[in-house]
């Protein structure tokens, strides 16, 4: 037993080291999306919905094929009336005396009856109802497929937004930490100048106020980061308090696409729009289905079975029969007409809603494209502003220590530096998020299978 423990100890240490390396490296964006897509309950529900739609298509195809049924009945009745029918009479013509009389006695129900048959029904013409059902099933299956793709893309987008939000929040916390350090240094300098008799007491109080305000800003930034961690864990179906470590993405590469190219891709590949289009097609097929109520129905029926007063399956009691059955609803008090008009109105409603959906999609693409361009162009400006703010703070702080600038100037330089750091981080990750939104709208977001 001691030898067994000795063998396992190096392996356990190795696994612990590897696990530590993995957690230290953090999750990549691709790994995060894969985990979220694998565990998301909404996607699993849509997978079952897709399976149900597939079975619905199988059902509609089966409606074209013959159906076979087996039925068997046995009945017994007593106390029914009997009728006697005379069939022959002989009488003496001279005397009128009845010499001979014959008759048949029958009842209106059988006392014992056994009936077993196999029936085959082949639809011949159903007024277009079967084709309408098949078209609806196909369109609904395609609609669910696109709906599932749209949901996967939506979940991937939410992961990206939260992922980049965490990185941005971490930069915010870092900026607030640096701001707190600067505020504490400012408090130290102000008190030193006050002790030397170079400034008034009010300057130390203003420094304390700035420090307290900066501490509050850091607390808010830390709480925002905690909430993003929990949102991220929720998307990945993990424990809300599990530690979150994510990796910094690579350099941003803007797509070489014009706004017109983005609009063309979105209107042609957006899975939400494609799902809506298939739903409109399905409602259009329902018009054909409701129109079939005005048409006759024709079926071919073949029966083979046995009919006797006891259970016997032999050639003396068997029978077969072939029938062509046609039916036509001549008058239904306007029900078929109402169903037909209702389906047409529903189809027109869906067409108008589809047009509105497409217009909204075009507007969203415009907004995401402009947002991405704004962030991309603003990132360079934000970098230049950050460099200027850092230099301004360095010069102003040096002047303040030498008594050549006021405390207000020094505080203003510190606030400007913090704002420049925050704006630089926000602009960088807004650019990533805008690109992710645009990819989602164009139907080209990361889609692992």
Q: Can you describe this structure in just a few lines?
A:
The chain is of the alpha+beta class. Helices cover 65% and strands 15% of the residues.
Principal-axes geometry comes out as: rod-shaped
Share in helix: 55-70%
Low-confidence stretches: 1-24
Largest sheet: 4 strands, antiparallel
Q: What oligomeric state best describes the polypeptide chains here?
A: single chain
Can you walk me through this structure?
There is one protein chain. Helix 4 (129-195) runs antiparallel to helix 5 (201-235). The protein is built from 9 helices and 6 strands. It is of the alpha+beta class. It has a domain at 43-73 and 118-151 and 190-199 and 249-316 and 334-441: Outer membrane efflux proteins (OEP). The chain has helices spanning 2-25, 29-39, 41-62, 129-195, 201-235, 259-269, 271-291, 335-401, 407-441, and strands spanning 67-76, 82-91, 98-107, 112-125, 297-308, 318-327. A hairpin with a 6-residue loop joins strand 2 (82-91) and strand 3 (98-107). It is rod-shaped. Residues 1-24 have low confidence and may be disordered. It has a 4-stranded antiparallel β-sheet with strand order 1-4-5-6, with no helix packed on it. A two-stranded antiparallel ribbon has the order 2-3.
């Amino acid at each position: 037993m001691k030898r067994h423990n000795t063998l396992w100890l190096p392996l356990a240490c190795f696994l612990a080291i590897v696990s530590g390396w993995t957690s230290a490296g953090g999750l990549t964006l691709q790994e995060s999306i894969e985990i979220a897509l694998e565990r998301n309950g909404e996607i699993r529900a849509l997978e079952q919905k897709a399976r149900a739609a597939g079975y619905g298509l199988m059902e509609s195809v089966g409606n074209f094929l013959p159906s076979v049924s087996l039925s068997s009945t046995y009945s017994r009745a007593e106390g029914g009336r009997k009728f006697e029918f005379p069939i022959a009479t002989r009488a003496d013509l001279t005397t009128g005396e009845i010499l001979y009389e014959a008759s048949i006695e029958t009842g209106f129900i059988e006392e014992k009856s056994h009936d077993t048959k196999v029936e085959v029904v082949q639809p011949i013409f159903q007024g277009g109802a079967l084709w309408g059902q098949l078209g609806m099933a196909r369109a609904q299956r395609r609609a669910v497929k696109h709906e599932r793709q749209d949901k996967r893309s939506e979940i991937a987008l939410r992961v990206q937004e939260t992922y980049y939000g965490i990185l941005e929040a971490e930069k915010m916390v870092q900026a607030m930490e640096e701001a707190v350090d600067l505020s504490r240094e400012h408090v130290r300098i102000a008190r030193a100048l006050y002790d030397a008799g170079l400034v008034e007491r009010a300057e130390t109080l203003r420094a304390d106020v700035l420090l307290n305000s900066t501490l509050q800003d850091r607390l808010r930034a830390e709480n925002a980061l905690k909430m993003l961690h929990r949102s991220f864990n929720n998307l990945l179906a993990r424990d809300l308090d599990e530690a979150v470590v994510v990796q910094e993405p690579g350099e941003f590469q803007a797509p070489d696409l014009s706004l017109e190219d983005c609009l063309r891709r979105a209107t042609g590949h957006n899975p939400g729009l494609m799902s809506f289009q298939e739903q409109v097609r399905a409602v259009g097929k329902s018009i054909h289905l409701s129109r079939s109520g005005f048409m006759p129905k024709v079926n071919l029926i073949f029966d083979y079975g046995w009919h006797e007063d006891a259970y016997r399956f032999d050639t003396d009691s068997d029978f077969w029969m072939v029938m062509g059955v046609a039916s036509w609803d001549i008058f239904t008090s306007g029900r078929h007409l109402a169903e037909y008009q209702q389906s047409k109105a529903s189809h027109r409603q869906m067409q108008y809603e589809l047009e509105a959906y497409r217009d909204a999609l075009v507007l969203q693409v415009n907004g995401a494209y402009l947002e991405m361009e704004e962030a991309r162009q603003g990132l360079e400006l934000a970098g230049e502003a950050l460099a200027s703010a850092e230099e301004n703070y360095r010069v102003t702080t040096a002047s303040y220590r030498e008594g050549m600038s006021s405390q207000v100037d020094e505080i203003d330089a510190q606030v400007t530096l913090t704002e420049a750091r925050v704006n630089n981080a926000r602009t960088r990750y807004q650019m990533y998020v805008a690109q992710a939104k645009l990819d989602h709208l164009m139907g080209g977001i990361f889609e692992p299978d």
